Give the backbone structure.
Amino acid sequence: MPGENLTRDEARERAALLSVDGYEVALDLRSAVGEDAGDGPRTFRSVTTIRFRSNEPGAATFADLIAPSVTSVSLNGRDLDPGQVFDGSRILLEDLAAENELVVDAQCAYSRTGEGLHRFVDPEDGEVYLYTQYEPADSRRVFANFEQPDLKAPYRFEVRAPEGWTVWSNGAGERSDGVWRFAETKPISTYITCVVAGPYHYVTDSYERTFEDGTKLEIPLGALCRKGLAPYFDADDVFLVTKQGLDFFHDHFDYPYPFGKYDQAFVPEYNLGAMENPGLVTFREEFIFRGKVTRASYEGRANVILHEMAHMWFGDLVTMEWWDDLWLKESFADFMGAFSLVGATRFTDGWITFANRRKAWAYRADQLPSTHPITADIRDLQDAKLNFDGITYAKGASVLKQLVAYVGQDAFLEGARRYFKRHAYGNTRLGDLLSALEETSGRDMGTWARGWLQTAGVNSLTPQALLTTEGRIDELAVVQEAVESHPELRPHRVAVGLYRHEDGRLVRYARAEVDVDGPRTVVTELAGEQAPDLILVNDDDLTYCKIRFDETSLATLREHLGAMTDPLARALCWSALWNMTRDALLPASDFIDLVMRFGRRESDIGVLQMLHAWAGSALVHYSPASWRPRGEEMLARTALRDLRAAEPGSEHQLAWARFYATVASAPDDLNLLRGLLEGTEKIDGLEVDQELRWTFLEPLAAHGAADEPMLAAELARDDTASGRRHQVRCLAARPSQAVKAQAWAQVVESDTLSNALVEATIAGFTQPSQRELLAPYTEKYFAVIERLWTERSIQIGMDVVRGLFPALQDSPATLEATDAWLAGHEGAAPALRRLVLEARDDLARALRAQALAND
């Protein structure tokens, strides 16, 4: 629809005109159960009353609503003709009064894409589960509203649901006369309202806190999931992390949690990691672990719980005015997730994961042609959707970590406290936070912001050492470089560490913190120190940069990386080596060799799993085709060796088993996987649970060693929602032209699959071992993506455009085809062009890396 993509200018005009006093939303969800009505989407009744003021009586504006039909519209008691005022996405409102009441009675559609009100039927027991997901602008699929973050208002929800169901919303609720009625919320934005309904399994607890002034705070806690996942639901651990987080944020924010209760819902087919709806946070149900997982998975879940909790202050209590300042919530939540993880939970090594995993996401995003400043230029909602990216999250969080080093932790937290108190339940821009930080730190935040928040790109920091004849440092400097397209050289607060061999270990013996500014900074504090075997710029990971090495340091890492004793320093070196591989400065085969030699010595399980992922990418994308079979065979032998050598039953053994499955292709390897499935083969301590069974089945399917009956038999063992997703992926992975044609048609020519099954089908379709089989789909891809972008929801459009890009056809011809599409579709939606440009950049980077290996 023409008005579906709200622009920033439209939002500003509407915000200047209107103030919203409150919403009353009544939903009738009884239609969620029972037989489908037939033609058209399954719908539910939504009746919305909005009370709002206009500072220009007689003016016109619009309300937002995406719905199949509208039954009635009333403005200030005047009945409006829905056919005249509703165009499918907007309701025209003319001749406004100073005080207004709008009532909209509509038939809204249940979602299968995870946007709006998602309806899921559990294949295990036939039960129906509902939940909402709105970010950035999908509440208009459920009720009429003014869909922009700066028109905050209190909400009252009431929901009529099928018998036997429970309903949750942002406020506390009670059921009477068959209707669930919820307490009025504080003023919040449309996109963080929420409804969850169905026969969910629900567990309760409570949090209590007594403050220094004697006041007491009690927060009812709840956690819910589908009944089929209840046997696996470790709600006690969820509550433990929740309480630890609430303690931490109360200690540091000096502003009590403001939204009453705190429910956390783990819901099916979720297309995000989680969403910070105040009082009712929603998570993807994959955070409930059906099988054995490593500590890294529990750490990841804890981080997400804390990330969403931080949003209660950064984002929910104080909200950005428009999506330009999305970083004001996401960057802070990402930083606070790691900060509280380390400070409040058992995961005290959380900064290692942050350095190795989160920042890798940021470095990739910041080198794409679509890179943007942390404070981005968001013209419309499609821009906003795509900017939930590695820059807004992980780079922003990395920059905040640098800010803490720059102004000091106490000044940073005091600035946050003042920010909350000044702007509670309001909306802010960049300057509002900077002014608070200037007050508390005494620093010029404008200069810092221009360098870090308002420019794009990542700097590289390289050490230069001049030595005396006696083998000591005469001069040590840090050289800062930037790419031509983003030439900003930023101020960095960094630690420079010197490392040497001692008794077979690589240990730090000297360290200095310095301010790096400009192209070359001399580190006077380290002059006269003994010549190091390794110089690590950005030791302790204080800043956001790409680390480079001098020749001596790189040679040391090639031979002794596994001897480095400090796990954070080791993780930083791995990350730097991976960036060099991506930048075609280190051949992919060299990186793979390092993983094969030193991966087994990696103590941090999260880093080890990241190394496995990087090694797989190096093999699939950055290695020349002629070397891939050899590289795959070498990795398989290494993975099997380290699988057998790992401590029986350990998380390292599990990690190596999963990695082994991703590189297994030779008959002996496939036979071993099949034997482990059938019980004819054993590896001491390795429990092949249901999730690991599916992990082993995918390579068997991809290499033609698991047929449809075998996969059907496995589904019979695990006929659950998770099992269905795994089976769909494995079915699409089979090496058959007919299979690929069917998978393509299910995703591209039909919209019957849910978002979760679209994702699973694409994952199975794109098998690295099937490049020749997938070659015909390059031309088909470019022929359909513009139509798909127009016809599908933005979430499905993003999944398909990203997931089906022919990255495995890594040749100059594919690059030329991409360029031809871009040249021939200059008028395509900017968000679509951005996705294609990003995929093109990844492909060009892969070709450069392959060329390095061939030199």
In short: DSSP finds 28 helices and 28 strands in the chain.
